[in-house]
C-alpha cells in the first residue's frame, strides 16, 4: 500500500450531496414562484427537467464551452421554456433565488463526517472543485466541512478547471508535495479521475450508483460508499 500524505476531495456529488440539496431547493422554488398556476408541469417534472438541463450545462462549462454567467443565466430559462412556458411567463429572480438558497442546504453523503474525522489526523485534506468560489465556501460553512480542510482550490482561484492537470499541479505546488504522495477522490470520471491520473496522482472513483461507462482505464480504486475509504487509507 502506497504511503499517501495528502488527500484531495472533490466537493459536489462527492461529499456535499448536490442532488438532494438541489432537489429540496427546486421544490421550494416551485412553491415560492407559484409555478403550478401555469398548469403545464408538476414539481417532479420541474426538478427532472432542471437536472437534465443543469447537468449538460455543467458539462459544457467543464469543457470550456460556456462561462459561469452563461450557465447561471440559461439553466432556468432552458428548463422552463422546455416545459412549455412562454418567454413572458418566465419568473423574474428564480435563478438568483436558487443561487442564494441551494448553498445553504446541508445534506452530505453517508459517512462523510465519520470518514473525515478518521482521515484528518493522518493526512492533509484539501478540496479541488470546479464549483464557483462564491457558493462553495457557503456550502462548506453551512454543512460544517470547512474545519477539515487545509486548502480549498476552486477553478476560479487557480485559473484552470479539472481535468486540466495544471489545477492539480497548482495545489501540489501550494502544499509542496509530489504527485505520488497524494490521492484524489471524486465522482466525475473525466474531471477527477482522468485529470488526477494525467497529473500523476492516484485516484479513488466515488461511484455510489455503481454505473459502468464506456471502456476506459480503471482508476486506482473504486468505491460505492465513503466508508470504504477506511479500507484503503
From TrEMBL:
List where this protein forms a coiled coil. none
Lineage, top-rank taxon, reads: Bacteria
Q: Which InterPro entries match?
A: HAD-like_sf (IPR036412), HAD-SF_hydro_IA (IPR006439), HAD-SF_hydro_IA_YjjG/PynA (IPR011951), HAD_sf (IPR023214), PGP-like_dom2 (IPR023198), Pyrimidine_5'-ntase_YjjG (IPR052550)
Molecular function terms from GO = 5'-nucleotidase activity
**Listed name of the protein:** Noncanonical pyrimidine nucleotidase, YjjG family
Amino acid at each position: 500500500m502506497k504511503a499517501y500524505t495528502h488527500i484531495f476531495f472533490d466537493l459536489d456529488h462527492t461529499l456535499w450531496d448536490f442532488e438532494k440539496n438541489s432537489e429540496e431547493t427546486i421544490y421550494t422554488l416551485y412553491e415560492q414562484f407559484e409555478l403550478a398556476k401555469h398548469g403545464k408541469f408538476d414539481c417532479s417534472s420541474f426538478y427532472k427537467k432542471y437536472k437534465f438541463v443543469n447537468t449538460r450545462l455543467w458539462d459544457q462549462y467543464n469543457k470550456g464551452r460556456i462561462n459561469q454567467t452563461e450557465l447561471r443565466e440559461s439553466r432556468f430559462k432552458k428548463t422552463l421554456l422546455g416545459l412549455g412556458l412562454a418567454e413572458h411567463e418566465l419568473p423574474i429572480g428564480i435563478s438568483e433565488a436558487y443561487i442564494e438558497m441551494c448553498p445553504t442546504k446541508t445534506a452530505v453523503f453517508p459517512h462523510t463526517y465519520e470518514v473525515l474525522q478518521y482521515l484528518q489526523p493522518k493526512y492533509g485534506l484539501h478540496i479541488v472543485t470546479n464549483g464557483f468560489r462564491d457558493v462553495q465556501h457557503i456550502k462548506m460553512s453551512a454543512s460544517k466541512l470547512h474545519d477539515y480542510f487545509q486548502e480549498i482550490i476552486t477553478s476560479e482561484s487557480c485559473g484552470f478547471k479539472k481535468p486540466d492537470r495544471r489545477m492539480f499541479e497548482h495545489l501540489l505546488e501550494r502544499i509542496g508535495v509530489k504527485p505520488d504522495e497524494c490521492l484524489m477522490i471524486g465522482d466525475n470520471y473525466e474531471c477527477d479521475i482522468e485529470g488526477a491520473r494525467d497529473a500523476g496522482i492516484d485516484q479513488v472513483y466515488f461511484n455510489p450508483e455503481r454505473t459502468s461507462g464506456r471502456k476506459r482505464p480503471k482508476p486506482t480504486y473504486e468505491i460505492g460508499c465513503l466508508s470504504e475509504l477506511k479500507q484503503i487509507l
